[in-house]
Amino acid sequence: MDTIRYTADGPHRGPGRRALLAGGTGLLGLLMLGAAATTTVPRPGTAGTSATGPAGTLRLGFFANLTHAPALVGTANGLFARELAASGTTLETSIFGAGPAAVEALNAGAIDAAYLGPNPAIAAFTSSGGRGLRVVAGAAAGGAQLVVRPGITDAAALRGTTLATPQLGGTQDVALRTWLAAQGMETDLRGGAVSITPTANAQTLELFRSGTIDGAWLPEPWASRLVLEAGARVLVDEADLWEGTDTGAPGKFPTTVLAVSPDFAERHRQTIDDLLRGHLAALDWINTAKRDSVLDTLNTALEQLAGAALSPAVLERALGKLSFTPDPLSGAYPRLLANAAAASLAEPASLDGLVDTSFLEKARAARTASGTGAGA
């Protein structure tokens, strides 16, 4: 399996190049990509061996992050490679540090499929007039919290504080702004009742320790790291804000989805079928394997790809907040887009065609027929 890591000076191949591309995962950032300098370069040639048959290579992008656990497991355990090999397709992986960079690579033809957050996927779809990508499955759900200093015990105590989110217009940034508005504290891009500072997750931990910020709305494992390593307390668990009307179960909301290039999917349907079977196999393994094996596999992958493993306590707490499911939870997407629009970080748009579960349904049927299960 070949791996490309995207760095600030472009894509690099090989296990020795571990620097990840820094950047944001927000709706606003994606809408501005057209005016930004590109950091991804399409590889020469084509991904497939023919116009409509199985592709010679599937180029898959994901993050070295716990919320992308199906991708970590699918590559580490050879589950993707095994399913793809049955049709003569090889796997090439690209490691990203930001949603916009992965979307840009997808749009440029540098990769064929990617694990993304729901907000970057929505933004890419709406900003491209529905041509940019298709969500074909869910991957992870849940796992986001507002964690704050111990002295902050209610929403009123947040007035005048400084909070961080991973990226302006990103999933957690929109969630924080929406919750603050519901508490009567309006925010805007310049500040408001609460100052919101877009900050890389690793830097957020250090800024919280130093007292520079008062809290943050973060995905896992960063919420757990602030709680267990820096003494933060949970003020809001985002799971409590999802009553189940949109997603079919209380507390569930999408965190990571699997998206594909519509053009690639049309030309190489068999390859996407194979990818989805590998995806379901990874989810099944995460949800049914012995806990110690899951923890060891994920931490080894994080150490290899991100340069550092998590402490056992952080890993256990973070996984306890996440669930891994192929359900894209698409009922949540209109709400996510409406919240971003209310925060002046997106424009209202149609989401018709964003989600295509036909590949997922076919993969589930194939796994059932083979006796390997239908997927988590």
TrEMBL record:
Subcellular compartments: Cell inner membrane; Periplasm
Domain of life (superkingdom): Bacteria
InterPro entries per UniProt: NrtA/CpmA_ABC-bd_dom (IPR044527)
Keyword annotations: Cell inner membrane, Cell membrane, Membrane, Signal, Transport
Short name of one Pfam family: NMT1_2
PANTHER family: ALIPHATIC SULFONATES-BINDING PROTEIN-RELATED, TAURINE-BINDING PERIPLASMIC PROTEIN
Family: Belongs to the bacterial solute-binding protein SsuA/TauA family.
Protein name per the record: NitT/TauT family transport system substrate-binding protein
Native source organism of the sequence: Paeniglutamicibacter psychrophenolicus
Lineage: Bacteria, Bacillati, Actinomycetota, Actinomycetes, Micrococcales
